Amino acid sequence: MTSPHPALEWWKTAVVYQIYPRSFRDTTGNGTGDLNGITERLGYLSDTLGVDAIWISPFYTSPMADFGYDVADYTDVDPIFGTLDDFDLLLTEAHDRGFKVIVDWVPNHSSDQHPWFVESRSSLSDPKRNWYVWQDPKPDGSPPNNWQSLFGGPAWEYDNTTGQYYLHSFLPQQPDLNWRNPEVVAAMHDTLRFWLDRGVDGFRIDVAHFIMKDPDLADNPPAAPSNGGAELTTMSGYDDWDHLHDKGHPDVHEAFRGIRRVLDEYDGDRFSVGEIHVFDWDRWSDYYGNGDELHMPFNFSLVQSDWNPAAIRGRVEGLEAAIPPHGWPNYVLGNHDEQRLATRYGSRNARAAAVLLLTLRGQPTIYYGDELGLRDTDVPCEQAQDPWGSRVPGMSRDGCRTPMPWSSVAGHGFTGPAAEPWLPFGDDADRRNVGTQIDDPSSILNLYRRLLRLRKERPSLHRGGIAFIDNVPDGVLGFIRADGTEHTIVLINFTDEVKRTSIPDGATLLISTDQKRAGIRSRVIDIDPTEALAIDPEPSA
Ligand code: GLC
After folding, report:
1. Catalytic residue check, 183
2. How many whole angstroms from 77 Cα to the centroid of ligand 1?
3. Is the pLDDT at 189 greater than 90, yes or no?
4. Fold of 115-167
5. By alpha-carbon position, which residue is closest to atom 4 of ligand 1?
6. How far is it, in rounded angstroms, from Cα 147 to Cα 167?
7. Prediction pTM value
């Protein structure tokens, strides 16, 4: 069926797959994944699974205090991941397959080992001093203001060499760059150009709104007792403050316009998505700008949602009402900072969650391993890695970052049989792995594959509008996607009971989480517990 609308930019119809490179595929046998491992598995991603783009978490030179989110060289590859040549090969092979590659970009902070910071901290008069945020102590020697690090403790570290504090919104090993210094802006723009020149298709921008703070570094006020919920659950006292001044200053929009101008120097619809944890829809939608800033702010609302139809519908309607006319929606259900979706919702609901993610209107991002239904792994203390977890008990992200199990053999096809993976495999990796699931028609992996195919085939799903269906039974979420005269109805049963609902006469089943469902009778359908399905309402000719 032809679509009534003009062609859309690739990133609007693409399904993105996030790769945490340490955990995807290790080709050197050192227990840590690498770029060649990703290149090796491009066939899995494009042909077997059927996604359109990958976002690769940082692989730059780094002391790995925050596993790559502490960058010591923005224009090189850390030896643990390979070389620039390896990256170029990955990119070429991805492009040969018609695949897009999005890289992570970490503008808010560098590593304390970055030569810029090494110079900056060397003396008060160093030309790079003002590349970071330095301040005198208060008269009593305490930090310049009350800002807190998201990873626990004050956001200021005292530096003996020069007797000043520097700002770090995250770890002390991650000093914040001073985006109010035009030299920093120019240097960071050049790092974008470095990767754009190599041919990358876009950037995922780490904690994008953090880059602009109050120029006067005013204290944050205490959080109101009920201010609509915390922006992040940090358990570290961070949420006791209203983060009015330490991030998201209105000047961030001019900084985003500058970044967009750099992307627009290049052809091919280079794309940007900002990691922006803001849960007030009006404030969130500001981050779309006027179509001249980042292409989209990530929408984390579903990650925070309870698994029930009213909550999910509320989030989707909130987004649809907030989104500006030039904006395009997006959804994620998991990433390298969050509990895995199968842990949050349970393994059976993880299948329905796949249907939800891949049938909503907007760009979906799948977190690696969610297509296998991976759950968080209990990582024993002696194998713990995440610095957030060691600073703030309960905040470790190790559980969602464990290696991708490709097969049942020793090393699970992730690493060599004798190698020690950097984090342990889940205890169900013998069962929940690519090799085992590919041969099982009813596996969650095959559900993802069928869903991705269906999304690609049906314009209503990859580009159409969305409207909720009101007359569905309690506990069921129903919506209809439409592109011109092509429609897809999606029904999700969130309960443990069978739910009966009416459907158009002559409708046909497109997909169900229950691979064995034979088809549908006309006019009514009994939706099984936790079942999700998509239906073509038009009688076939
Ligand atoms: C972002 C990243 C997270 C990292 C933090 C600091 O939130 O997703 O993994 O620790 O920024 O860079």
Report:
1. no
2. 18
3. yes
4. Oligo-1,6-glucosidase; domain 2 (3.90.400)
5. 69
6. 9
7. 0.97
